[in-house]
Design brief:
This protein has about 550 residues and is an alpha+beta fold. About 45% of the residues lie in helices and about 10% in strands. The strands form 4 sheets. Strands 1-2-3-5-4 form a 5-stranded antiparallel sheet. It starts with 11 loop residues before the first helix and ends with a helix. The structure holds adenosine-5'-triphosphate and magnesium ion (MG).
């Protein structure tokens, strides 16, 4: 392989580059990188030599060539691929490196044979909404491996060991799983690995218990001059829960994998992305000497929720005094952010940045609430608790489709709250576009709206997510009211705040902004609209 790559501008490859907006020079450089690395797909050489010789490929080879060279990003997000061809080519080389010696140790005939199975797994992932069950994929594979005519009858589950954890495969797909495994992020037989040396952390039992999570105590320590916490995961409790009828949703190995990914590994899949200071820092994972408990170490933060609850009235008094002393009235309140509103706006921006960072990585939190935030000792509010979070695959980036009811009842969106409920329950409560699935990104944004309401007014917007709760009707201006039912003429956010006596410290821009969160999924405010809204824009430069 050699010589500069020239393409026929009328050819299929060139036309494809135009279509996916990939710069031909960058394309040529990316191919050179692949050729030089030696870690290419077995078919790459044939395609590449053909292109050097004929300045093009036959039409039917274009798609397989791009797929083998750049990976599944070509199949699922061509625009994203077009922006960073070298990154994706290089990533695919790393993935290919992962196959090279590993496949020889399995019963796969060759790479084509594996590619066929990978396509079956990918298609299964793509046709099953979250949360996908590992057992369902394993059943499908076992059936294939038993079927004499499937072409996979010589395989066993252990042949897939080189992909690392199956939990990873079902969330982010086989190639991302392989990459994570190659980077020592996951291991096939032990979902807790990699563990950190216990000697790097304090004696886990020596800390002061500050809270409880479902799996055990949360303790606080001063260690090497900084405050850290451990979340204790009792493994016996975890095993009992896995076989219980009524299972607790939260799955610690997945939480830890998501946290590790957000902190250390997101750059495998996201060119140029920087880490986010508004996600609580993970410090490490250890196990006790009898393998009874896992300790999940993080930076410590104070309770942001109680800071809000105890701060509101004091700030309101101060604000009213200021207005009185300066002879200012309603028009000032309506047009100006109070010091409280300014602080809440800054905190909101940080939390929104944290959540948007997660979404950019393909992760939905799915249980966002103020109780799942902390105030870091550096003064930044941060997101914690990724126990029911989900890492979505490339194929799901347009829509984070979920079918389970998950999260906290007083925070979750109507579409999540009522998913798969009986028609009697839901018809009374809420009119929705669909009742069988919801988008985790839009749901996270709804929960961010509920959190913002709590941050601004130190009280929840509603108790029940449905029109049986009058406050919900007012908050949403009746947009979820079933047809034929009357909406009160003054049903809007302002009337709700008036009834709560919460109008003394909120600007008009703030109310306009807040109301946009409590709309049906497809009308709900999006990230672009959040960042361009005047209420946020006014203060954005103060939030580094
Ligand atoms: N890094 C931290 N700093 C300070 N407190 C923390 C930290 N992490 C967790 N906590 C405390 O422990 C509580 C439980 O932790 P977490 O929310 O992660 O577990 P959980 O089992 O998912 O809890 P829940 O089901 O109540 O949401 C938090 O609400 C918080 O009070
Ligand atoms: Mg929690």
């Amino acid at each position: 392989m050699g010589g500069p790559l020239k393409l026929n501008p009328q050819g299929y490859v060139y036309q494809e580059l135009l279509r996916i907006k990939m710069n031909p020079d960058e394309f040529a450089t990316a191919l050179q990188t692949v050729a030089n690395s030696g870690n290419y797909h077995p078919r790459f050489k044939t395609y590449y030599n053909h292109m050097l010789e004929h300045q093009d490929l036959p039409e039917s080879d274009v798609a397989p060539f791009f797929l083998h060279t750049f990976g599944t990003i070509y199949q699922y997000n061509k625009t994203r691929l077009g922006r960073h061809p070298n990154f994706w080519a290089d990533r695919q080389c790393k993935i290919n490196e992962g196959f090279q010696d590993k496949l020889d140790m399995t019963s796969f005939d060759d790479r084509d044979h594996y590619d066929q199975l990978e396509k079956i797994i990918r298609d299964w992932c793509a046709s099953n909404p979250a949360p996908r069950k590992k057992q369902d994929l394993i059943k499908l594979l076992e059936k294939l491996f038993k079927d004499e005519d499937s072409g996979f009858q010589d395989l066993e589950l252990e042949d897939l060991e080189f992909l690392g954890q199956m939990d990873y495969v079902i969330q982010q797909g086989p190639q991302a799983a392989l990459l994570a495994h190659m980077n020592q992020l996951t291991f096939y037989n032990n979902e807790w690995l990699p563990l950190d040396p216990p000697g790097d952390f304090p004696d886990p039992l020596s800390g002061e218990t500050i809270a409880h999570c479902f799996w055990g105590p949360v303790r606080k320590y001063k260690h090497k001059g900084e405050w850290i916490v451990s979340k204790c995961i009792n493994l016996a409790k975890l095993r009992t829960n896995l076989s219980a009828q009524q299972r607790f949703n939260d799955y610690p190995p997945s939480e830890i994998a998501s946290h590790r990914y957000m902190q250390n590994c997101f750059h495998y899949d996201n060119p140029g992305m920087k880490s986010c200071p508004y996600i609580c820092k993970l410090k490490g994972i250890t196990e006790d000497s009898q393998s009874k408990n896992i300790f999940y170490w993080m930076e410590f933060g104070t309770d942001y929720f109680s800071e809000i609850a105890s701060g509101y009235n004091k700030e309101l008094k101060k604000w009213k005094k200021f207005l009185r002393e300066n002879n200012l009235g309603r028009s000032h309140i309506r047009s100006t952010k109070s010091p409280w509103e300014k602080k809440r706006c800054l905190d909101f921006i940080k939390l929104a940045r944290g959540m948007e960072f997660m979404h950019k990585l393909g992760i939905a939190h799915r249980d966002f609430k103020l109780e799942n935030t902390i105030m870091g000792l550096d003064g930044d509010v941060k997101i914690i608790d990724f126990g029911v979070g989900h890492r979505f695959g490339f194929w799901e980036q347009k829509n984070y489709r979920c079918v389970d009811r998950v999260g906290t009842a007083t925070y979750m969106s109507p579409e999540c709250s009522l998913v798969k409920r009986s028609s009697r329950t839901r018809d009374v409560r809420v009119r929705l576009e669909q009742y069988d699935h919801w988008d985790a990104r839009a749901n996270d944004i709804w929960t961010l709206g509920v959190a913002l309401f709590m941050m601004l007014f130190a009280c929840p917007p509603y108790d029940t997510c449905g029109n049986t709760d009058t406050r919900f009707v007012y908050l949403t201006s009746g947009v979820f009211m079933p047809q034929g039912r009357k909406i009160p003429p003054n049903a809007n956010l302002k009337s709700l705040l008036k009834a709560y006596s919460r109008l003394a410290m909120v600007s008009d821009d703030c109310m306009d902004f807040l109301a946009r969160f409590f709309l049906p999924e497809r009308q709900r405010i999006t990230w672009d609209q959040i960042w361009s809204h005047r209420w946020v824009q006014e203060i954005l430069d103060q939030a580094p």
